[in-house]
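Feature request disguised as a bug: please show the residue count (373) next to Fatty acid hydroxylase superfamily protein in the output. Example input:
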Amino acid sequence: MAYNNDNAQAFRARYRDAIHPLYNPWLHAAFVLAYGLTCVGLLWHTLDAVALWEWLLVPLSLVFFSWGEYQVHKRLGHNKTRFGQLFYKRHTGDHHSFFVEGQMRYETLRDWRVILFPAWLIVLYSLPLLGVWWLLSHIDGNLAALFAGSMLLGYISYEVVHACEHLPAEHPVARLPGIRQMRRLHALHHRRELMHSRNFGIVHPLMDWLYGTLHWEPEPTYQQNRQQHRIRLTRPADAVLSYAAAPAHWPEWHPSSLRIYGREGALLADEVFEEDIHAGGRTGHLRWDVLDYQPARCWQASARGDHGLGLLLTYECIAVEGGCEFVRTLEYGFDGGLMRLANRLLLSRRIERESQASMQALRAVLERSQPAQ
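Example output, currently without the count:
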């Protein structure tokens, strides 16, 4: 995963540099929604005394849209063809390089450029639909309007749900049950070994289930809770990260860390260590695996503990004038329902306070000492 995430960060930097400076993400999204809903409104304004059975065309049309989306996604988005060369480049070349499993969230609003389809595409998509509506209206005006309008609703739902699948995990919409499941399926689709063969559905998994391409794995335990804290430090990024990424130093600045069992210095990817902790009012023991270390940029490790506890800890350093910004992201969760309830009622608030205290302690330690070597 570290290799893919590293590549994704480099690609993100290049992609963002290439975005036109006048690009406006709000205008992009607003145009797609406004144009699509306006077309639906105008089409359905022509409806007259719709019978109950005629309304059944709406879900049937949405299922038909999902079938078409599945086929286009699978056959053109993940197979290079002469006809779909531009779509393949934008989807597999750009979107799947920008987002990889473990790094699915957008970081700035301008990242919507690689999530949403080009704004002009909904206009191009609507033209043949309007032609179909005009032809079918000579047979049955209600059915023509319901079909064309529903197909446009399918397009809009694709854009909205796909955007939700790249929201930050802590966003309230991302935690809604249906969205949460589709976010997980989409994250699995972005896994390198699965993206050409599994989970092509964006809005729902019906077509993947019918065609046998549905792949599901439970979320990692640590994805249940996420806490992030930032501080500005008057120390170089490389010195700050090399100090924080040395677990032997943790008892000096983190109130939850009691003792570290491992070597001195910043630990590299694939190294292991253990830790005695007192967090959230509970004593425990953690077994850590270092996942990634990029000097002056980021350090990441995962851990398993007592009571089904799973942790993912990420340190990031961002160089700023006069020093750096240090970002600590803690993701954690429990396997058992009883501990999940205890965390919701009590532990999470204590862990939040301890994390905030650790950041202030880190500032104090670093500001009264020389930069770590």
